[in-house]
Amino acid sequence: MSLPGITPPADASHVVASYATYAEAERAIDFLADRDFPVARVAVVAGDLRLVEQVTGRLGYGGAAARGAAAGATTGALLGFILGLLSLVAPLTSGLTLALVGLVVGGLVGALIGLIGHLALGGRRDFSSVSAVQAGRYDLIVAAEVAEHARQLLAAHARDAAARGRGRRAA
User: Fold this and answer.
1) Each residue of 107-165: pLDDT tens digit?
2) Which DSSP letter does residue 35 get?
3) To bridge 25 with a disulfide, which of 19, 39, 61, 131 should be the other Cys (CB 3.0-4.6 Å)?
4) Nearest 5 degrees, angle CA 73-CA 75-CA 77?
5) Is the predicted pLDDT of residue 31 greater than 90, yes or no?
6) How many angstroms separate the Cα of 81 from the Cα of each of 54, 90, 93, 145, 155?
7) HEC profile for 91-159?
8) 72-102, pLDDT tens digit by residue?
9) pTM score, two decimals?
């Protein structure tokens, strides 16, 4: 799958450097750009991906109903307001009135759907969580014809960074 406007690196490309954080990869690309390197030929590819799910707490019937009510109320209020604005007579008043009705009705319907959904799981997922994808490394991929030049520039960048690091420790 590719995203519009983003071209994956060509087959004839090389990994010229790997970094532990995205910020380090960004600094390396900035360094290349400062030296007039054709950065349009560079891609950052995240590797060693893992899904991390942080459990945030228990989820009971009340929590499921509250989450459903919040989602339903938001949706109902937004739809009510938009439909009210389409009214020919006093669109702002109609919009606010229908937003209030949508808030209440959407909240009630959302709470009911949240409860039914929680009951349908039968206790298999009685917790709430937040998921995130984390990368173990960030590779700089460069077109083959400019890879050696990129390696040379990045080696100089690494030497400069090491020298700056030694200078700070000595001070």
Assistant:
1) 999 999 999 999 998 878 888 899 999 999 999 999 999 999 999 999 988 888 778 87
2) T
3) 19
4) 65
5) yes
6) 36, 12, 9, 57, 58
7) HHHHHHHHHHHHHHHHHHHHHHHHHHHHHHHCCCCCEEEEEEEECCEEEEEEEHHHHHHHHHHHHHHHH
8) 999 999 999 999 999 888 888 999 999 999 9
9) 0.61
Q: Is the pLDDT of residue 20 over 80?
A: yes
- Which strand (E) or helix (H) includes residue 18? strand 13-19
Query: Can you give the residue ranges of every domain in the chain?
Result: 13-49+135-170, 53-131
CATH code for the domain defined by 13-49+135-170:
3.30.70
Residues 6+ apart with CB under 8 A from 21: 138
Token pair, residue 121, equals 């799981």
Tokens 């040379």 label which residue? Answer: 152
Number of H helices, E strands in the chain: 4, 5
* Integer-rounded Cα radius of gyration of the chain: 27
